[in-house]
Amino acid sequence: MPKEIQVKSVLNKTKKRDSWFLDDYTFNPYSSCSFNCLYCYIRGSKYGINLEQSLSVKTNAIELLDRQLSNRAKKGQYGIIIVSSATDPYLQIEKKYELTRRALEVILKHQFPLHIITKSDLIERDFDLLKQIEQTAILPEDLKSLKSGVMISFSFSTLRDEVAKVFEPGATKPSNRLVALEKAIGHDFLTGVSLMPLLPYISDTTEQLHHAFSTFKTMKVHYLLPATITLFGDDQASSKILMLNAIKKHYPDLVGKYNKFFSTGSEMPYFYRDAFYKKMKELCEEYGLNDGIIKAAIAKRR
Ligand code: SF4
């Protein structure tokens, strides 16, 4: 059972808008995450090895969000809210608590735009509210060209269910996420894919990349946001140790490579990152996919 907690703030202003995610604010209805991805950046001793066991529900989130958005709206400080940045908005417990759904009602009331990032198909439940937000949200002055108050990004580290079972054991299967993605596109939402992170030598192989890009092309995905993996920490609950243990157990042939890359640092070496981003650019061009949300929004209207 998740803990129920009260918090002081649920709407956080970001210091600087990220050019990929276009975030002005973040909203997290839950603390920690039962999807339990081994590579997750929130991992560390604070939450323990099993993120599900430290899951908390912010019981005053809706009341606080209402107050905080009302204050921002009075000052005309409209901006894109990321739902969510440090948990998934559609965890299994969302079916019971409906905090995300109620937050969407509040966001609709105050006419804020949003960017949902999820690994779940439960988002389909809220397409009705998202459609209303899309049509009524007030975009910040410098992002008026988006012309859409809703962006939906489905997050994948792999398209293979059996691989996801190892690295993101609590999340909706990729095959089900793809069905939800197709439905979001069918509802004409500005819909993309966050490939963060692709798993070195597992989901970034030439064969896997062509399979992923051709799948997204066929589905007419509007944008792709790919990134390399970053792993932190050295305690048993850290993303680095959990990933290295999983590699040892499930991909023993890759132990040497992963140990070499992550024994001293948290990022893949420069030669890999450089080749990775060049490859992503090439593949986006080859498959006619946009590598940014703004570009995608403009292309979608043509
Ligand atoms: S879904 Fe996101 S927040 Fe949750 S564990 Fe996975 S990477 Fe972390």
**Total tally of structural domains:** 1
Strand percent estimate: 5-15%
What does the overall shape look like? globular
Helix percent band: 25-40%
Based on CA atoms alone, the radius of gyration comes out at: 19 Å
Strand order of the largest sheet: 2-3-6-7-8-9-10
Quickly name the level 1 CATH class.
Answer: Alpha Beta
> Can you count the beta strands?
10
Structural class: alpha/beta
Number of helices: 11
Distance between the termini: 48 Å
Tell me the CATH superfamily.
Aldolase class I
Bound molecules: iron/sulfur cluster
Biggest β-sheet description: 7 strands, mixed
Please give the CATH architecture. Answer: Alpha-Beta Barrel
The helix-strand sequence is EEEEEHEHHEHEHHEHEHHHH
Overall pLDDT: 96
As for the CATH topology, it is: TIM Barrel
Summarize the structure.
With 302 residues, this protein is α/β, with parallel strands linked by helices. It has helices at 61-74, 94-97, 99-110, 127-136, 161-167, 174-186, 206-218, 239-250, 255-262, 270-287, 293-301, and strands spanning 3-5, 11-13, 25-27, 30-31, 56-58, 81-83, 114-118, 150-155, 190-195, 223-226.
Description:
This protein has 302 residues and is of the alpha/beta class. It has one domain: Alpha-Beta Barrel (TIM Barrel), CATH 3.20.20. Helix content is 40%, strand content 13%. The protein has eleven helices and ten strands. Strands 2-3-6-7-8-9-10 form a seven-stranded mixed sheet. Strand 9, helix 7 and strand 10 form a beta-alpha-beta unit. The longest helix is centred in the last third of the chain and has 18 residues. The chain binds iron/sulfur cluster.
